[in-house]
Amino acid sequence: MIAAGARVRLIAVLIVAAVLPCRAEDAISGRWEGSARIPDDELTVIVDLAQQNGAWVGSIIIPGLGVKGTPLTDIKVQSPDVSFTVKSPLGIELNLRLLDAEKKLTGNFEQAGNHAPATLQKTGPPQVEYPPRSTPVATELEGEWKGDYEMLGYTRHVSIKFANHPDGATADFVVVGRKHNVLPVDLVTQEDDLVTVDSREMGFTFEGRLRDGKLTGAIRQAAMETPLVLMRAK
Amino acid sequence: MTMKISGILILFAALCAATPINAQSMFRGDAVHSGTYTGPAPRQFHRVKWKFPTGDRVISSPVFKDNVIYFGGDDGIVYAVDAATGHQIWKRATGGPVPASAAVADGTVYIGSYDGKFYAFKAQTGALKWKFATDGERRFEAKGLHGWQPKNQTIADPFDIFLSSPVVGNGAVYFGSGDGNVYALDSATGDLRWKFKTGDVVHASPALADGVLFVGSWDSYFYAIDAATGKEKWRFHGGEDQTIHNQVGFQSSPAVVNGMVYTGCRDSNLYALDAATGKEKWRFFNDLSWVITSPAVADGKVFFATSDSSLYHVVDANSGKPIVRQQGKAYMFSSPVVGSDVVFIGVLNGTLEARDPKTGDLLWDFKVETSKQNNGWVLTGDRKFNVPFLFHSNWREAPLVATDQEIRIGGIYSSPLVVNGVVYFGSADGFVYALE
Does the beta carbon of A180 lie under 8 angstroms from any beta carbon of chain B? Predict the structure, then answer.
């Protein structure tokens, strides 16, 4: 038997308990602007965090490092703690805690084994940028294409094998020079007759137009670009 | 009696001719640039004996003569410092940075400067004996160099960091220049004996063996030149790179030992050439990673290291077969030196490494202070270069600024000098160190 007053208090506690996580998550969702204080320098950091279909999504901007709208991964929110990594070769990770009447995130900015204190202030609603997605490619592109190019005095053989899937196309991208390189592909797109295959991790991009049964374009390896024509493999 | 005196004089003269001027008095130790030093070398680190401050980075490699260390500074000054105490004996200003090493012979210090002049100072006082004007210094440059933008803009190479260091012999002093020439001057008067034109910058340092001068140019050729006449004996063609001009040019200085020439190249190879003919004996390819280091040759082995792949190698001098391969932390431009039972090499992350000559294992290392501070996160937590952090843009001056940040960490470009159990080297932190 619970007294009427006690029942009211219990209900109130339950309501508060139910609402608190929502408030905490609401508090974390937003645009956060601030800086990381690395030795002899200060990096401007802008983070966007939001919930989408019950999952956290986010992106980051670091003007001093050429980072704009780069996706966040491994986002963990256990209020008041938030942590995430940045999907880029920079190897950035932030571990932050919500402080100061839910308007400040402070914590640690880590990059390639270096650590710096970071403080971010909430400045508005989230403006998360989403990474481009692979599109389907034309049926006539499906299958394997081959070609050669020369760079720095020797020939490299290229093979790209396209396949369509419900969530977009994939490509197996192989370059054989002095070594056999299987390149991890991030993105395959086709816009009109322009086809792009991107391996950001390895710094390779093929871009070509499907004309007269050939994929005519160029391959870019880091800063070097050279023409490349791919023919359907026999 | 007269016959006996004449015989003694002839013998003495022959001995003088056969003996190197001084095994520590020029870049890489001697005229053939073997990069080897006899006598004790510290296999263990005990202490900093002294450190000498200058006004700017020290890229120059110190040389030793009569208990004095000589080197140039990027502050434009040539220094003479007491090897025992680290106290300055004299300094003399030039009109530009001096990232070259001196040669000391016959009481004279020879060294070049970015002011386009080549200087001869009295070793004892620093008084100017003579100076010679070349056609002017410049760094290697190319359009769209290293893939930096804009593609059609000529960019001077910030990694062209050394000036050619002189070699002295046959009454002449020889050196390369940014004007594309190799010069031979009368060592006593500074008068021009001859100059040899190559197709681009010569910042490698010539080696002298058996009356032949050996040096590579940024024009992609390696040359053998008659030291007496300045006539070409042969040339060897290294790799070319018409796209981004990254994989071209001889920046490494050669070593000439037992009739073989060993030289690194920006085309990623270490070459072994027949000194008489220029015919390639073998090459060691380094997967697009430059070989800037000048090889050291000792006990039938060649010691060298690479830039981007940061590998320390020991290979067989006759065959090029690998003997030792050790993964380093950061790029190496500093040329290794082989002491009695220890190899020293500088690393661009501000570390001097002492390695076992047989295994390549690290015996000890020394980090300069600026390197430990790691301002601007030039280095990663494990002391590699923080490349994606620094080189996030290839546009305008961004890569040049990033390169400068790398240098300011206190990189050791200087080739170490080993004398009487002490190792001397310069650092881009502005100091010359003496460790024992």
Answer: no
d(CA B103, CA B60): 12
DSSP state letter for B416: P
> Checking phi first, is residue B400 left (phi over 0); if not, alpha (psi -120 to 50) or beta?
alpha
Q: Residue B299's closest CA among B363, B343, B252?
A: B343
3-state secondary structure of B317: coil
In chain A, what residues touch B240 (CB-CB under 8 Å)?
153
The answer to whether residue A116 sits within a structural domain is yes
Full-prediction pTM beyond 0.90? Answer: no
Domain boundaries, chain B: 33-435
Helix (H, G, I), strand (E, B) or coil at B342: coil
Instruction: Name the CA dihedral angle for B404, B410, B415, B416, rounded to a multiple of 10 degrees.
Output: 170
Residue A14 is assigned to a structural domain of this protein: no
CB contact under 8 A, B377 and A38: yes
| % of chain A with per-residue pLDDT over 90 | 73
- Tokens at A79, concatenated: 């209020």
What amino acid occupies position A172? D
pLDDT bracket for residue B15 (50, 70, 90): very low
For residue B399, say if its preceding peptide bond is cis, omega within 30 degrees of 0. no
Chain A interface, best mutation among B149, B392, B395, by max A CB count within 10 A: B392
E strand or H helix at B104? strand B103-105
Rounded CA-CA distance B413/B323 in Å is: 25
Q: Give the CATH number, domain containing residue A169.
A: 2.40.128
Structure-block tokens of residue A70? 């780069």
Angstrom distance (rounded) from CA B41 to CA B340: 6
A181 and A222, same structural domain? yes
B144-153, B282-291, B298-307: segment of lowest average pLDDT: B144-153
**Is the CB of A39 inside 8 Å of chain B's CB atoms?**
yes
Q: Give chain A's domain count.
A: 2
* Residue B209 burial by Cβ neighbours in a 10 Å radius (0-12, 13-18, 19+): buried
Report the alpha-carbon distance of residue B240 to residue B266 in Å, rounded: 9
CATH of domain B33-435: 2.130.10.10
Domain with A70, as residue range(s), is 30-124
List the single residue in B147, B388, B393 with the smallest CB-CB distance to A224: B147
ipTM above threshold 0.85: no
Backbone angles phi, psi at B130, to 5 degrees: -160, 165
Q: Whole-angstrom Cα distance, residue B239 to residue B119?
A: 33
- Of the three residues A124, A147, A170, the one that is the final residue of a domain is A124
User: What is the token pair recorded at A99?
Assistant: 């402080």
Let me know: does A50 contact A122? Beta carbons within 8 Å: no
Question: In this structure, what CATH number is given to the domain that contains residue A100?
Answer: 2.40.128.120
H helix count then E strand count, chain B: 4, 34
